[in-house]
Every structure is written in structure tokens, then in C-alpha cells.
Amino acid sequence: MLQYAEQLLKDYFGYDSFRMVQKQVIENVLNGSDTLCVMPTGGGKSLCYQIPALALDGLTIVVSPLISLMKDQVDMLRSNGIPADFINSSLTFQEVNEVMNHVYSQRTKLLYIAPERLENDSFCQDLKQLKVSLIAIDEAHCISQWGHDFRPSYRSIQKIFSLWPHKPTVIALTATATPNVREDICHLLQIDSESVFISGFNRENLSFKVLVGENKDQYIKKYISNNPQEAGIIYAATRKSVESIHAMLLQKGITAAKYHGGMFEEDRNYEQNRFLNDEAQVMVATNAFGMGINKTNVRFVLHYQMPRNIESYYQEAGRAGRDGVESECILLYSSSDEQTHRFLIDQSQDPTRIPIELQKLQQMIDYCHTENCLQSYMVNYFGEQEIQDCGKCGNCADERPKQDVTEDAQKVLSCVVRMGQNYGKTLTSQVLAGARNKKVEAFQHLTTYGILKHLSAKAVANFIDFLISERLLLVKAGQYPTIYVSPEGKEVLLGKRRVLRRTIVEKAVVVNQNDPLFEQLRIKRKQISELEGVPPFVVFSDKTLRDMCEKMPKNEEEFLEVSGVGQNKLERYGEQFITIIKEFV
């Protein structure tokens, strides 16, 4: 059966072999075992259910959270000659009936549906009449209350398992699942621990950076000017920020699209399609954009503000480099980001989630202040064994020697102790900096008052954040979080441990050079995509175009050797691209 699956991979998708975890997942599913697949964005999760869908008799139902995700997936499958359909709120009643007729007549192998559709009893009765061999649950972290994006509608998935005399095989897939979330998914879907496959959270083609204290607008304009041919996403926390950044880029002459929840759906779709079709170089958006967007040639993701948690950041940053090509993820941090998120969390409609969200926020803040490897930090967060330093993130690439700041650390830790370990970062930093206001008056008698007065209160607060990221100080979560000294911090106080810290991280902008042949192939891809009414990456990904440049295929046999080229795409596009390559030579 696995050999047949590999043949399907080559025939329909143009790849010679599965990645290791893909192979294990697909084999497990084909053996009829319910499976959890945790794989980072760009890791090839979709193939883990699409190949079994082709190999098995009957229909595969894919539960997917967003309309854009469904459309992209269906476009990609149809482009590869695979019959697929979707049902969601964007379709009329008549269009839904047409799709169901395809399903009844077995002209559809994969049917994408929204989880809310499963709350419709009439629809479930329709499903009951079908031969369903596989149920794929995409973005499966949405089913867990411990997940960063819990959605109650996902709980409806469980009730459909009893529709058929023999329950279809189930595969749950997600890119962001901590150990708690994985355990919850397995419990809810009754998946054995032996059927959990984790491919690794390390994205080797991505380089991560955190920049503190930047002039954000100037940095963005300079960065995009230095990367004029590359597509990218800029994430901002508020609609107002999106509008401001978008206007700034347009004024600079940069083709930019925008996307946020305050826009009409028609306008959002228009802007999204401009970006997908390479008509806009940059998408400026809130976190409302991107889930399920399968644009493979995003070369950079910039965050104008810090996201609320690591899961969100990993998912949003992971939209860069889905084709495996080197890409950058840069977070522009300022201390005000923390206050914005604390306010939004406090306004949460579900007070039971506030402690969880505050803990996740603190872990995100720690990421912004750690001087250790950023890739390693994220991998460790998701419960994977810690990797070696990546060697290319902003911290690993910083070659400046570290300075001994043990004495300043002892002063901070001592002040926290003398204040009773019952106060927050802001007040503590004001006491250390010798501020003069009513809140600080009660602490002016302390020997640590003003002991760091050569620094501003803001600089001291940043230093405290660094000590928290080093686990020398810990945070007691709550509406008014307080800081206290950890066991490791006590070792510093007693002189048993040194503390080393770098100065402000260097600012660097990478200029990407493009191959002239690559540009010609990209132009041809754009022309084809406009004729067919699909985004360019549906025709070929950047990775496939770059492989063409490297292999320079001169005939059909050689063109089939290009990564991402299957028989269907050879027949549809091979002659046009081979002609360009021959002319270039």
C-alpha cells in the first residue's frame, strides 16, 4: 500500500519520496489507525491526508476552519488533477446541491467543510448515506481548551463519528500544539499515544530576529526597499496600525494590500487576491489574515508589534518560506506591546482563560528578551527536545562578546527582595532608577532606591525583562503581575553564579539577489495564473521555479525530474517553461 502511495505522490504532486514523518503518518493512516500529526507550517501536512484520500476507496471529509483555506486547497488539488470540492457559507443553496451531486455520484474524492456545518442535523443525515473512508481535522488545536485558538464548534466533530456502522479513520493535523494541547486532542478523539507523530518544530530555512527600540516605520521602509522583488507580510496588532502602515507604504510607492476585521468581506477578499496573485508585494494585516493562506513564495514576515503568544507568532511567522527557500521572520518589539495585550486579555469574555493567556503572554515576552537561540526557544516551548543553536537567528549571528552584568543583576534581585517580592516590573524599575513620584515615596528608605539611577526606568525595565527571560526572576501571573526571585536568582545574589548580557542587538537588512532566469519563469507563471484565474503558486511554487533554474530541463523527461512537477503539470505547462529555459541558454 505504501508503494502505491509513493506512486500517487509522484504522479499527482511530482515528488519522488515522502519526508520521514510524512511516510510514517501516511502508513499509519492507511493501516486504519486514528492519527495525530503535528508538523510545522510548510512541512507538508496536507499530503498526510491527501495521499491516503487518493489511495482509499470512498470519500475523505476534511474539516477546515476558514473559507480561504478551503478554496486554496481545492484549487491546488484540482490543479494537480484531483477531484475536490468545498461547502461553506460562500456558496448558494444551489451551489451546495451541485457539490453534493458530485459527492453522491462519486466524482469527488475530498470534500472540505467548515466545523459549523456539522451542527446541521440534515447535513449529517446526508453524510450518513455516503461511504466515508477518512476524516481529516485540520487546525486540530482548535478542538482543545488549552489551545491558543479554541473554537467550540470544533467539538461537533466528535458526534459525527457515530453516523456510520464502522467509524472512518481519523487524522488530526496541526502546526502548533504544546504537550498539553496534544494530550487534550488525543483524549477527545481517542487517539493512542503510539499514533502521535511530531515532525519537529525547527524550520531550518527560516531565520528569526527580534529588534528592540527600532524606529519601526523607518526600518520597514528600508527593509522593503532593499528587497524590492520579494513578497512579504507585515503583521500589526490593531486596525489603526494596519491603515497607517499601508498608507505609509503606498506613499513610498510600494504596492501593498491590507486586511483587517473592520473591512467589508468583499474588500478583504479583493485585497487578499491581489496579494496571492502577486499584484501587491506586501500584505499589511492583523492576525485575521493568513490562516490557511497557501502562498508559498512569502520571503519575509515582519511583526510591527509583539503577538500575544508563541503559538500565534510561530504560526504567523511560519507563513514565510513555505516552499523551503531561505526566508526571514523579524519581530519589532517595544515595551508598550505588553500593556496592549494585557488590556485585551483583561477584556476577555471568558474569565477562566485569563490565567492561561497571561502565562502565554509572559512566555512571548521572554522570547523577545532572551539572548539564547530563538529557534531553540520555540522548539523547546512546544515540548520538543532542545536543538543545537541554529547558527543564523538574530541571537546566534550576534558575534559581539557578552558583558558581565552580575553586579547590576544583584542590585535588581536585592531590590525585589527588599520590596517584599510583591510588586510588578514597572514600580520596581522606578525604585531602582530613583524616580520621584507618589508611588515610589514608600520605598525611598530602601538601600536599593536609586541604585541604578545612571539608567532610565525604561532601561531598567528592559533589564528586568532580560532577567526574567534568563529565569533569574519569575512572574506571578494575575491582573497585576508581580515578580519574585527564582532559585537560580538566589545563586546570583549569593555570588555563586555570573550573569552575562550583550548590548543592543545589531540591526541588519538582507538584500536578496534574483536569478534572471528565475525572473523570466516567474513572469510566465504570472501570465498562466491570470489566464486560469488562480494564484501563481498554484501553477508552480518558488521552490519549483528555483529547481528549474538549477536543473535547466531541456525535455519532458528532464522536466519531470524537477521537484513539484507531476505528469499533470508537465502536460499543462511543460512546453512553455522548457521553451523559456532553452531560449535562456
UniProtKB/TrEMBL annotation:
EC number of this enzyme:
5.6.2.4
Q: Does Transmembrane helix appear among the keywords? A: no
Matching InterPro entries: DEAD/DEAH_box_helicase_dom, DNA_helicase_ATP-dep_RecQ, DNA_helicase_ATP-dep_RecQ_bac, Helicase_ATP-bd, Helicase_C-like, HRDC-like_sf, HRDC_dom, HRDC_dom_sf
Keywords on record = ATP-binding, DNA damage, DNA recombination, DNA repair, DNA-binding, Helicase, Hydrolase, Isomerase, Metal-binding, Nucleotide-binding, Zinc
Cofactors (names): Zn(2+); Mg(2+)
Q: Tell me which residues make up the Helicase C-terminal domain.
A: 215-362
The cross-references to Pfam families, in alphabetical order and at most eight, read: DEAD, Helicase_C, HRDC, RecQ_Zn_bind, RQC
Q: Does the keyword Nucleotide-binding apply?
A: yes
Q: Which GO terms describe its biological process?
A: DNA recombination; DNA repair; DNA replication; SOS response
In this chain the Helicase ATP-binding domain maps to 26-195
Q: Annotated Gene Ontology MF terms? A: 3'-5' DNA helicase activity; ATP binding; DNA binding; four-way junction helicase activity; hydrolase activity; metal ion binding
The record, for Gene3D superfamilies, names: HRDC domain (1.10.150.80), P-loop containing nucleotide triphosphate hydrolases (3.40.50.300), Winged helix-like DNA-binding domain superfamily/Winged helix DNA-binding domain (1.10.10.10)
Reactions catalysed = Couples ATP hydrolysis with the unwinding of duplex DNA by translocating in the 3'-5' direction
One cellular component (GO) term of this entry: bacterial nucleoid
Instruction: From the UniProt record, list the coiled-coil ranges.
Output: none
Q: Which domain of life is it from?
A: Bacteria
UniProt domain HRDC: residue ranges:
511-585
UniProt-listed NCBIfam families: recQ, recQ_fam
Q: Which family does it belong to?
A: Belongs to the helicase family. RecQ subfamily.
Which protein, by its recorded name, is this?
DNA helicase RecQ
The species this protein belongs to is Ureibacillus endophyticus
